[in-house]
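Hi D.,

Good news: the full-assembly prediction came through. Inputs first.
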Amino acid sequence: MPELPEVETVANGVHARVAGQRIVGVWTSGKSLTFKSPEAEIVETLTGARIEKVRRVGKTIVMDLSRGKTSGSQFLVHLGMTGRLLVSAPEVPMPLHTHAVLSLADSREVRFVDPRRFGKLSVVKEEGGYTGPGKEPTTISAGEFAKLFKGRKLAIKAALLNQSILHGVGNIYADESLFRAGIRPRKQAGKLTKAELARLHPALQEVLAKAIQLGGSSVSDYVDADGVRGFFQLEHKVYGRAGENCKDCTSPLKNIVVGGRTTVYCPKCQR
DNA sequence: AGGTTGACCTGGACGC
DNA sequence: TGCGTCCAGGTCAACC
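Then the structure:
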């Protein structure tokens, strides 16, 4: 499901609803894959903690926790492909594939639901906290951005998807930013010209900003903390449009595989 | 070390 | 209606 704009929408929505709340109880499903930290450690860290802040780092939702005067623990939620983080009244029926429930002091519940179980829950306690695997794409400068790709032999699309380089960009926004910058997805990252890098940096930041503004892209089942869909899918120029005509030049969009992911581009607009 | 591929899951869409 | 196949917003371990 979720790339940077969707994760940010969810994190902001959950923050607005639960910041300042105390977690009074935690239930976990015990299913495989979902738990990156031991479940007992997650339950112990969360139970009795106060949620100070909910925010996004890369594609991860970070809950900053405190207990008494001590702070520093964080609950990390990665949504994988199909994960949802919902804030519900307790009487709302529990969705299928619910893997964790945090009961709040006011009786509402934060529910983690994930049919495919590619999502991950964990807790971190280190000082400094979670900073993510790569650079933040929404604030990186043009100069820093250009440096990331120097000498890289992999395709620019694969580089954009690599979370240890830039974190937060996924398949939709990689394709959409490359289209807007007029760059072939298979071009070697290290061979981008100065002009291409100077187009890609703002193209990526504009696409992400616009998508955040519209609440993300709802391709199939993505919803925010209230169960509301986003609207950026209406702005997609290439993602999900293979075989259809380019909105800019009317030639048919091509479908290829780059870095193991379906990739759609316009052979005429992207040279 | 950098780069590529397949495995991990469920469910929805499509073809026969 | 039902069954098989393919595909999906993401990682990661295991391989070159």
